[in-house]
Amino acid sequence: HAEDGYALWLRYRPVGQTWDARYTAAATQLVPAGGSATITAATSELNRGLRGMLGAVPGQAASVSRDGAILYGTPANSRVIAALDLPLKGLGNDGFVIRSVRVNGHRATVIAANSDVGVLYGVFRFLERMETREPLAGVDVRDAPKLKLRMLNHWDNLDRHVERGYAGLSLWDWFTLPEWKAPRYTDYARANASIGINGTVLNNVNANPDILRPRFLKKVAALADVFRPYGIHVYLSANFGAPVAIGGLKTADPLDPKVQAWWKAKADEIYRLIPDFGGFLVKANSEGQPGPQDYHRTHAQGANMLAAALKPHGGIVIWRAFVYSAQNSEDRAKQAYSEFKPLDGKFADNVMVQVKNGPIDFQPREPFHPLFGAMPHTPLMMEVEITKEYLGFNTHLAYLGTMWAEVLDTDTWQHGQGTTVARVLEDGKGTGLTGMAGVSNIGNDRDWTGSEFDQANWYAFGRLAWNPQGSAEAIARDWTKMTWGENPQMVDAIVGMMMESREAVVNYMTPLGLAHQMATGHHHGPGPWVHNLSRPEWNPVYYNRADANGIGFDRSATGSDAIAQYAPHVAALFGSLNTVPDKDLLWFHHVPWTYRMRSGQTLWDSLIDHYDKGVATVAQMQRTWALLKPYIDKQRFDEETAFMEIQHHDALWWRNASIAYFQSLSKLPLPAGHAEPP
Ligand code: GCU
């Protein structure tokens, strides 16, 4: 079924003549060390990969007895590996070494690590080298993840509806669990392990408390059993009001001893079923969810109470900073910082605070969240949205590797120059807790993500969580080779499309720093005119502030002063019209329609240019894609062709609707060469 997308980037297609002999010579024999479930998984992946790529499965042996053997395991389980004296020190549990060595007088490749999961990661990397046609002779790789927790957050409801999901129903079939462990759960674990993902939150942050009931916990335990050999720990979103909703208590006040005892007993119960349970993810006092503030307690008091229940078992609490309140008239972009910055140093040492990449909500572009670097005593985890809620759902081609790399590479200046967001994330503040979370785009569609190109976003998330300083382009290239094939012209063309795709979306939806212009509720399509929703900060007009005079949100010192939440260097950069990057202009400033950009163009003309550029880029991607027809199987080619038609149509819709609305305020003509909206 390689052509229906099910295999993801683990397609393992025949490598073809150029590579066949070379790879076959390097894969003549499998020599696993130890017999754990994880090593067994590594063996079965090698068999699957080698059978697919080379047409045959090498024999298995207890020791290296021929040239081309692959020896894999830990020094603890293999005296031969121990004797090779490999540089495993400093690689932690998850790192690995892949090296060409001589064993018993034979050429061999050793894949070694300090733990079996590290070995499995090494095996996946070995197979990836073959899939991307890298040489195996003389291989010498030493790698370890820079972040400890590399997690997916599923926003899956217990009725299998996926909040902001565009790829079918939830993978978790609660009705047939725990008895039926569908093979697809194993394939999910394989895909995640192949990119180093080691944690999964199974349920929506808008959490149904029922997940904590015994009948659901048994089902959760069954999934944890499937994922365990692949190094994946299960976490749950916990509803802070659960003691009331399902526990029969009258309060969920974190300082109430009965509430504390309830959570402690709940944690004990969970760990009896799932000894390596990861912990709780919590959305509290946000968008209607219950939380400690209902009892006049702080976020830290709420988080620490749960942390105390999990602590004896080694579990952690991941507390979300995505808060903004109906009672608060402060600029929404400022509220998370205002709430959490004063709590720095007040969280228990098994609490992480999970911060979205930007201060509003997963927009096509946002400046980085001001909390990064601003909580020197609190381990922060970055949360990105893999599912494209605000970027055209599953049909628009938008490679998000570039978006995440843009944030990760940004310098917060919080501890001097070079304190990039990536560096902030890599610093566990002495707790060893570091991480990144991605809101999953996975559902039960045959292709998992609702489109081929959205698989790239799952893949890129894993790679960047492993190494936040990784290159979005290199990641796109690896994914393209594994997903579409090795023809160099095709690879260049597809990578080129991917690299400009997200900027195209920014241009046709929300150019020059605009944000949150999407239609109400579903967030698909334009709605910059919407002004009558019950909460002001849900209205697009709150963000564009467009009127007869101009457009943009003044967050400088003359406005909401959100810039003051950044380090002085960054505040100065964003705060001045002379230095603010064009891409962030209307995020930080309100300017007249006739404002002169540094290019000499007026703001109005520049805005129109950006909308048109967005549409033109999509048209260009369509032309590029059409030329690739000879290289791509029919089903995947036809589907993407159709999806790009949808994207082009939507891009025009965005462009026309946005220009028509803003023109009704600016009353300005379109610059020469740009079509009036119909
Ligand atoms: C967005 C999204 C919601 C989600 C929320 C969150 O606002 O639209 O569906 O619940 O983010 O991250 O909690």
TrEMBL record:
<comment type="similarity">
    <text>Belongs to the glycosyl hydrolase 67 family.</text>
</comment>
<keyword id="KW-0326">Glycosidase</keyword>
<keyword id="KW-0858">Xylan degradation</keyword>
<feature type="domain" description="Alpha glucuronidase N-terminal">
    <location>
        <begin position="8"/>
        <end position="126"/>
    </location>
</feature>
<feature type="active site" description="Proton acceptor">
    <location>
        <position position="389"/>
    </location>
</feature>
<keyword id="KW-0378">Hydrolase</keyword>
<dbReference type="InterPro" id="IPR011395">
    <property type="entry name" value="Glyco_hydro_67_aGlcAse"/>
</dbReference>
<dbReference type="GO" id="GO:0045493">
    <property type="term" value="P:xylan catabolic process"/>
</dbReference>
<comment type="subunit">
    <text>Homodimer.</text>
</comment>
<dbReference type="GO" id="GO:0033939">
    <property type="term" value="F:xylan alpha-1,2-glucuronosidase activity"/>
</dbReference>
<dbReference type="InterPro" id="IPR005154">
    <property type="entry name" value="Glyco_hydro_67_aGlcAse_N"/>
</dbReference>
<feature type="domain" description="Glycosyl hydrolase family 67 C-terminal">
    <location>
        <begin position="449"/>
        <end position="673"/>
    </location>
</feature>
<protein>
    <recommendedName>
        <fullName>Xylan alpha-1,2-glucuronidase</fullName>
        <ecNumber>3.2.1.131</ecNumber>
    </recommendedName>
</protein>
<dbReference type="GO" id="GO:0046559">
    <property type="term" value="F:alpha-glucuronidase activity"/>
</dbReference>
<dbReference type="Pfam" id="PF07488">
    <property type="entry name" value="Glyco_hydro_67M"/>
</dbReference>
<feature type="domain" description="Glycosyl hydrolase family 67 catalytic">
    <location>
        <begin position="130"/>
        <end position="448"/>
    </location>
</feature>
<dbReference type="InterPro" id="IPR029018">
    <property type="entry name" value="Hex-like_dom2"/>
</dbReference>
<dbReference type="Pfam" id="PF07477">
    <property type="entry name" value="Glyco_hydro_67C"/>
</dbReference>
<keyword id="KW-0119">Carbohydrate metabolism</keyword>
<dbReference type="GO" id="GO:0005576">
    <property type="term" value="C:extracellular region"/>
</dbReference>
<dbReference type="InterPro" id="IPR011099">
    <property type="entry name" value="Glyco_hydro_67_C"/>
</dbReference>
<dbReference type="InterPro" id="IPR037054">
    <property type="entry name" value="A-glucoronidase_C_sf"/>
</dbReference>
<feature type="active site" description="Proton donor">
    <location>
        <position position="287"/>
    </location>
</feature>
<keyword id="KW-0624">Polysaccharide degradation</keyword>
<feature type="active site" description="Proton acceptor">
    <location>
        <position position="361"/>
    </location>
</feature>
<dbReference type="InterPro" id="IPR017853">
    <property type="entry name" value="GH"/>
</dbReference>
<keyword id="KW-0732">Signal</keyword>
<dbReference type="Pfam" id="PF03648">
    <property type="entry name" value="Glyco_hydro_67N"/>
</dbReference>
<dbReference type="InterPro" id="IPR011100">
    <property type="entry name" value="Glyco_hydro_67_cat"/>
</dbReference>
